[in-house]
Amino acid sequence: MNLLTILLSSSFVILALFLSAAFKLGLGRDLIITSIRAAIQLLIVGYILKAVFGFDHASVMILMVLVMIAVAAGNAEKRGKGLPHIFWIIFITIAIVETVSQGLLLGLRIVPATPQYVISISGMIIGNSMVIANLFLNRLKGELEMRKEEVMLVLSLGGTQKQSIYPVLKQSIRASLIPTIESQRTIGLVQLPGMMTGQIIAGADPIQAVRFQLLVVFMIMAAASLTAIILGFLIYPRLFNQNQQLEIQAWK
User: Fold this and answer.
1) DSSP code of residue 145
2) How wide is the angle at C-alpha 83 spanned by C-alphas 77 and 86, nearest 5°?
3) C-alpha span between 248 and 239 (Å, rounded)
4) Residues 6+ apart with CB under 8 A from 212
5) In angstroms, rounded to a whole number, what is the distance separating the alpha carbons of residues 133 and 95?
């Protein structure tokens, strides 16, 4: 795919701009900024990955992964603004999920320990964890606003912090995982996933592409579950003060 092809593909953006203007959706500015930002970010990442792949050194791979985790945590932090140490809670959560996932992949020799595999797969794990963190925090905030009295009632009856907040956590975790579960239900029937499609377009055997995609599907489901559960149990103690009273006023 050459530069001319990329320029021609921008016609899709022009179509979206036309539809936004025709129906007065007010999305023109966002579409332009998002498109330009995506192009710049992907070009920068492309050059960075080319350099990293050339180094082929463990320290460079680890640094790259840490930067990715930090960016993801910074993005998800916005959903939990006001909660104490929320950035580091998300950072630690994603780091644990990344370590467990890559540990299994490399420990069981499912994939080789090369930058091409480690960084590419890490991007999928970290990106998915970031989305789950956003969904979880958004749902947790909503659940707490609706069920605040229920939590306080359990506390007033002598219940522990965990006992009072567990139903809220459980519902928030379940809700944050629904998009991931639903997207996997119709995989292969309604949609052909990006990794599988990319391999097929590149000329890979479809069966081999399916095998790699299954790896990604199983990995993402596990990573999503780990993210929601770990994040939930790291966050809930920060929702209470020293007197075991629920405090969510600062969470905006």
Assistant:
1) H
2) 40
3) 6
4) 195, 196, 199
5) 13
Q: Compute the half-sphere exposure of residue 206: CA atoms within 13 Å on the CB side of its CA.
A: 2
Residue with tokens 């050339």: 54
- Which of 122, 128, 115, 113 has its CA nearest to residue 222? 128
pLDDT by position in tens, the chain (length 252): 677 787 788 899 999 999 999 998 899 999 999 999 999 998 898 988 888 888 778 888 999 999 999 999 999 999 888 888 999 999 999 999 999 999 999 999 999 988 888 998 999 999 999 999 999 999 999 998 898 889 889 988 888 888 999 999 999 999 999 999 888 887 877 777 777 888 888 888 888 888 888 898 999 999 999 999 999 999 998 888 877 778 766 565
Which pTM value belongs to this model? Answer: 0.85
